[in-house]
Specification:
alpha/beta; Rossmann fold; 2 domains; nine-stranded mixed β-sheet; three-stranded antiparallel β-sheet; 8 helices; 14 strands; about 25% strand; globular
């Protein structure tokens, strides 16, 4: 039987999920939206993001009461509204909520789950973080960090990685070095100390996506075990988000 994403991440009620990283965040956001639509889910971003699909109803923030009314209407229609701060037409993007608006949205308790895209990676499968990234609300209960399996063996360079220099600074890796399992694990985990002040009680899941793009799944499995053994993350998933497939789930019970 196919594993549902919401079950793989052990979704609880009243979750606020922040998605970070590269290699399929937006696809994962809408995958969660499809699964959670029957019970009610609100989508948003705390950064700039490409226009969502035409089928996704946008609610632009004017004030708390207007947002409450519009989102309630969408949820009653069994749709998953995307709450944004406005349009950026020249960039073909939407402007995300600031952290005060994010807090107000959470206080309204309109849906059992809020899913937030909390950074951008310009289509790269691995991301380094500048000092203002990601934009994390301290209300986050579940952090999902995404990485594309197709980064394995690629170089730590602008061609494959968003802000590779930040990974080099944070890990001591040299630019242009091939990214093996050890290097990718370091690249994923180095920001966690900085994030901890925002994520004191949040659970942490890494999603290794695009497993279908590599010849053998074994390197992705080795990366998953490396991350689990670090004990910095609670779960690691292997996925093909484009097809809505969870291939494998690792948790701390897999550590001998």
């Amino acid at each position: 039987m196919a594993i549902k994403l919401k079950d793989a991440i052990s979704l609880n009620e009243n979750e606020i999920i922040s998605l970070v990283g590269g290699g399929g965040k937006t696809t994962l956001l809408f995958w969660l939206a499809r699964e959670l639509c029957p019970q009610g889910v609100v989508l948003t971003t705390t950064t700039k993001m490409k226009y969502p699909l035409v089928s996704v109803p946008l609610v632009y923030w004017e004030d708390r009461h207007q947002v409450q009314a519009e989102v309630k209407t969408m949820l009653l229609l069994k749709r998953s509204p995307f709450v944004a701060n406005g349009l950026l037409p020249q960039q073909q993007k939407i402007q995300g909520l600031n952290l005060d608006q994010m807090r107000e949205l959470a206080e309204l308790k309109l849906a059992t789950t809020i899913v937030i895209e909390a950074d951008g990676a310009k289509g790269r499968s691995l991301k380094g973080y500048r000092h203002f990234e990601p934009v994390l609300t301290p209300l986050t209960t579940l952090l999902i960090q995404v990485v594309g399996a197709d980064i394995i063996g690629k170089k730590l360079s602008d061609q494959f990685v968003h802000c590779p220099e930040k990974i080099a600074e944070g890990t001591g890796l040299q630019l242009e070095v091939p990214l093996d399992i050890e290097a990718i694990s370091s690249a994923l985990l180095y920001p966690y100390d900085a994030w901890q002040k925002y994520l004191v009680s949040a659970r942490k899941v890494v999603v290794i996506n695009k497993v279908d793009t590599i010849k053998e799944a074994e390197p992705a499995k080795l990366l998953a075990m490396k991350l689990i053994k670090s004990r910095r993350v609670d779960k690691v998933l292997l996925t093909v988000a484009d097809c809505g497939q969870v291939l494998q789930v690792y948790d701390q019970g897999d550590v001998l």
